[in-house]
Amino acid sequence: MRFLPQVWRVNDKDKVQLSPSDQSKFYTGDCYIFQYTYPGDDKEECLIGTWFGKKSIEEDRLIAVSLASKMVESAKFQAIQARFYEGKEPIQFFVIINQCGSDVVVVLLNLLLECISQTRLQSSGVVLPFQQTINDLVVNDLIIVMLL
């Protein structure tokens, strides 16, 4: 079973649900609320998150937090709440949001290539800088990942 998130944009003092095709499009001047339900150990669990664009206004941020808190309180199953800020999202955020139809593997590879330093180990034992494009990935390449 595939669990898809639901996403709302904060509009005035309410939330407006986005269509599935727009759920992975977040704009820097807006705030969003999302709900992701997933299988837990015994029953379904839920993550209710808020995302704040860098240019979003404080009033919208407060409304987003308030609406998300109400969603957590009224959840039918165990729910946790999280806040995400544009430019500081963990990779898990992109995995959840991009299930709306984007190719998650390509998104993750792009993020990985942007966030880390890579090297390629040739059969001769020489370590070369790894070109930062997906097209350079070869199945037989061994990628040594160095976290910065």
What does this structure look like?
By secondary structure, the chain is of the alpha+beta class. It folds into two domains: 6-101, 3-Layer(aba) Sandwich (Severin); 116-148, no CATH class. It has helices at 58-74, 91-97, 104-115, and strands at residues 6-11, 14-17, 31-39, 44-52, 78-85, 117-121, 127-129, 143-146. The strands form two sheets. Strands 2-1-3-4-5 form a five-stranded mixed β-sheet, with helices on both faces. A three-stranded antiparallel β-sheet has the order 7-6-8, with helices on one face. Strand 3 (31-39) and strand 4 (44-52) form a beta hairpin. Residues 100-111, 113-122 and 138-148 have low confidence and may be disordered.
Notable traits:
single chain, 148 residues, alpha+beta, Severin, 2 domains, five-stranded mixed beta sheet, 3 helices, disordered C terminus, Gelsolin-like_dom
Which fold does the CATH topology of the largest domain refer to? Severin
Main sheet: strands, sense, barrel = 5 strands, mixed
Overall tally of domains: 2
Q: Let me know the CATH homologous superfamily of the largest domain.
A: Severin
CATH class of the largest domain: Alpha Beta
The CATH architecture of the largest domain is 3-Layer(aba) Sandwich
Q: Helical percent range?
A: 10-25%
What coarse outline follows from CA principal-axis ratios?
globular
Gyration radius over CA: 19 Å
Continuous helix count = 3
Order of helices and strands: EEEEHEHHEEE
Mean pLDDT: 74
From the N-terminal CA to the C-terminal CA, the straight-line distance is 36 Å
- Tally the beta strands: 8
- Determine the structural class based on helices, strands and strand pairing: alpha+beta
